[in-house]
């Protein structure tokens, strides 16, 4: 059953494939479940970027080793305790 998600994720893997109208970004995100624990939740992330550069894209490009603040995204339970996420909005967190 779909639900809403708000969390901070670390992108550990990222790859792309192309469809007729979109670049489909497939990423693996990780988050720690509790502050003082080694328990980690894995997220399977799907993003869509239009091939036509004139069409606006509201999701910045994902890359490995990014840290994201994700809000108001749809999620559902995946296999092996993973969570499948379609990201509609996120903020890139820069550590300098």
Summarize the structure in words.
The protein is mostly beta strands. It has a single domain (3-93), classed as OB fold (Dihydrolipoamide Acetyltransferase, E2P) (Beta Barrel). Helices cover 0% and strands 59% of the residues. It contains no helices and six strands. It has a five-stranded mixed beta barrel with strand order 1-2-3-5-4. A hairpin with a 7-residue loop joins strand 2 (22-32) and strand 3 (40-50). It is globular, with a radius of gyration of 14 Å.
Quick tags:
6 strands, 0% helix, OB fold (Dihydrolipoamide Acetyltransferase, E2P), single chain, 96 residues
Q: In a few lines, what is going on in this structure?
A:
The chain has 96 residues and is mostly beta strands.
| Biggest beta sheet summary | 5 strands, mixed, barrel
- CATH 4th-level superfamily: Nucleic acid-binding proteins
Question: How large is the count of helical segments?
Answer: 0
The proportion of residues in beta strands is over 45%
Oligomer: single chain
User: Outline, from the CA principal axes?
Assistant: globular
CATH first level: Mainly Beta
Mean pLDDT over the full residue set: 78
Spatial order of strands in the largest sheet: 1-2-3-5-4
Helical content (DSSP H or I, runs of 4+): under 10%
Uncertain parts:
none
How far is the first residue's CA from the last residue's CA?
Answer: 38 Å
H-E order: EEEEEE
Strand tally is 6
Structural class by helix and strand composition: mainly beta
Question: How many domains, as an integer?
Answer: 1
Which CATH-level-2 architecture?
A: Beta Barrel
Which fold does the CATH topology refer to? OB fold (Dihydrolipoamide Acetyltransferase, E2P)
């Amino acid at each position: 059953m779909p639900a809403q998600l708000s969390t901070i994720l670390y992108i550990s893997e990222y790859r792309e494939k192309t469809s007729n109208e979109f670049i489909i970004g497939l990423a693996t995100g990780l988050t720690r479940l509790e502050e003082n624990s080694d328990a980690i939740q894995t997220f399977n992330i799907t993003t869509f970027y239009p091939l036509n550069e004139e069409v606006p894209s509201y999701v910045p490009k994902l890359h490995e080793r990014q840290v994201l603040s994700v809000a108001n995204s749809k999620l559902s339970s995946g296999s092996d305790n993973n969570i499948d996420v379609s990201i509609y909005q996120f903020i890139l967190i820069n550590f300098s």
